Amino acid sequence: MLVNLKCILDEAYKNYYAVGSFNGYNFETFKGIVEAGAETNTPVILAFGAKYLPNMSVETAAAMAKSLSEEVSVPVCLHLDHCKDQNVVYRALKAGFGSVMYDGSALPFEENLRNTLDVCRVAHACGASVEAELGSLAAGERSHEGSAEDVEAYTDPEAAKQFVDGTGVDALAVSVGTVHGLYKGKPNIRIDILNAINEKLNMPLVLHGGSGIPERDILECIRHGIAKINVNTEISVYAVDQTKLYLESAAPHFSELSLRQVGYVKEIVKKYISFFRE
Question: Are 122 and 176 in contact (CB under 8 A)?
């Protein structure tokens, strides 16, 4: 069943676990993510990034997610990820997305706040949730979300408090040392900054750039307010690498290859689900 983000994240925040937000952009990723949730009896967030609109429309994504969610008993939240265009946000809400992320993090603070407030008014009227972002992440290796020009800027706790009070967002993505993509060295997560944000906001926080973070760091982040963790790159890298290996040893029918790829996606999603709920 499809649900909004708030009903999943509030419970996670209160009970000190995180819900995985896994990027989907085709049938294989959508199906793998939903089936991983069903097989582990765990709610999942199916994140469709605005960057993947060339792969399918928000209307197609919503129809596919609705159909797949009806085959399982666990909650599934269809979430629009990293969208800078308010018109696309409103299209997604009309199509049936239960959550949207308006990403105005590159804008001046006041403009980001105004735009996010407008999105919250519309989304909440539709029964949907809103995620926003303050601060910015650098890009790691094999990132498909960030760019080489992205510069890390930590989230300021005081600004975060002002932003949340002024918009009414349901979740806030913070920058505390993670990167989009895979890490080039050892991650340096600023738990002190995260703790300060959590103490001021007392609401579900979001960690982008979850691929490749050591388990101990993930658990520490969850203890300090992170209730949603985004994973994209590792799923893609693993599925592509495994597909290459399989094609070196077999010449499958395209339909069989598709089923294999669903399995590859499930492997990584299940791995992170087990981390996030310890």
Answer: no
What pLDDT, on the 0 to 100 scale, is given for residue 9?
A: 97
How many Cβ atoms are within 10 Å of 151's Cβ, its own excluded? 8
pLDDT tens track for 235-267: 999 999 999 999 999 899 999 999 999 999 999
Q: Please state the pTM of the whole predicted model.
A: 0.90
Residue 184 confidence (pLDDT) above 60: no
Of the candidates 112, 106, 91, 111, the one whose C-alpha atom is nearest the C-alpha of residue 48 is 91
DSSP per position, 49-118: EGGGTTT--HHHHHHHHHHHHTT-SS-EEEEEEEE--HHHHHHHHHHT-SEEEE--TTS-HHHHHHHHHH
H or E segment at 238?
A: helix 233-249
**Active-site pick, 10, 81, 165, 217:** 81
Q: Is residue 74 a contact partner of residue 44, using CB atoms and an 8 Å limit?
A: yes
The dihedral through the CA atoms of 66, 265, 4, 42 has a sign that is positive
- Asked if 156 is an active-site residue, the reply is no
DSSP 173-234: EE-SS-EESB-SS-----HHHHHHHHHHH-S-EEE---TT--HHHHHHHHHTTEEEEEE-HH
